[in-house]
Amino acid sequence: MKLSTKRAQRAATRNKAVVLTGPTAVGKTALTDSLFSKGFEIINADSVQIYRGLDIGSAKPSEDLQRRIPHHLIDIRDPWEDYSSGDFVNDALAAMEGIWERGNIPLITGGTMYYIKHLVYGPPETPPADPAVREAVAAECSEKGGEWAYGHLMEIDPVSARRINRNDTYRITRAIEVYRSSGRPLSSFEVHSSVRADIDFALIALMRDRKELNQRIGIRVRQMADEGLYDEIRSLFDRGACRSWPGMEGIGYREFFDASESGEMPLSSILDEIARTSRLYAKRQITFLSSMKDFTVFSPDDENGVRGFLFAHGICC
After folding, report:
1. Which residues lie across from 200 on neighbouring strands?
2. Strand residue runs (E) in 68-135
């Protein structure tokens, strides 16, 4: 009886998955805690939370939440290691297979929109990495500097340049590499426009009023300071952290490098800059989300609405 019940559970959950996304500080973690504590396993879709030691600045889920709900793709890289959206898609799909086998439902949650989009719609068919070209581009960008690299990308692929933060060394060099390898700008390799058919996704986007969201961002930054963000940064510096580490591109970390490069800045000014860049990032996330028309938008406070939406997809929580 138990075996047949387990098989029936696996059959019911097979290929179902929930995606819960939204701008930074919108309330994804709180809703996860209240609605998805049983029968779900979380796949992290935050490009900074993948890194070990980047806990406070990335607003990593608490140890208590990670104990109560199994989490995947957190603390899987050291901050000097690269991790692409293609890596995420491959790792997420592998994690989903294991979750389904256990009779649970994957909950993919986070705010890195390229991760989300490439998983839901399928990654663009860009040319495979050429190690020789990658090494040559990395050496040239290192020699000539970040400003040159971003300016060069603006010349050869202005669409991608506008999508990429000018301090995001990894994505800038990857875009230049694609152009050098294929003769085509990265932006010409379009992501599929239809949701992949092999997974039954329930797609949820959380939104708040912009003023309220900005207030929440300010509160979050102050909480990070109270929780020891400065000590976390000092520990990373002691480990030899430098601006070229991919993990240091994350908001909450790169501002400290900007401060160290421009001269001494009081911590309060750095925190103000983190809040400002977080607000700009949230604006870009909202713009990106608006291009993904298959997502249904909810207020994070509308638990009943989200619950009803999931029930209509055959998912109980």
Report:
1. 16
2. 71-72, 105-109
CATH of 131-188, one of 3.30.750.24, 3.40.50.720, 2.60.120.10, 1.10.20.140: 1.10.20.140
**What does the block give as tokens for 270?**
């750095």
pLDDT of residue 73: 98
Report how far Cα 65 is from the mean position of its chain's Cα atoms: 19
Residue-wise over 15-38: b if at least 16 C-beta within 10 A, else e? ebbbbbbbbbbbbbbebbeebbee
Q: Six-digit token pair at 51? A: 């890194």
Is pLDDT above 90 for 134? no
265 φ, ψ to 5°? -130, 140
Name the nearest CA neighbour of 25 among 259, 297, 251: 251
Give residue-wise pLDDT tens across range 158-181. 988 887 878 788 789 989 999 998
Domain boundaries, the chain: 2-123+192-312, 131-188
What is the value of pTM for the model shown? Answer: 0.82
Across the chain, what does the average pLDDT equal?
Answer: 90
- The pLDDT value recorded for residue 7 is 56
Return the CATH fold of 2-123+192-312. Rossmann fold (3.40.50)
Q: Fold match between 2-123+192-312 and 131-188? A: no
Give the model's confidence band at 260: pLDDT under 50 very low, under 70 low, under 90 confident, else very high.
confident
DSSP 3-state assignment of 132? Answer: helix
> Where are the strands (E) in 50-143, listed by range?
71-72, 105-109
| Token duo for residue 34 | 């209240």
Kindly write down the DSSP assignment for every residue of 46-95, as one continuous string: -TTTTBTT--TTTTPPPHHHHHHS-EESSS-B-TTS---HHHHHHHHHHH
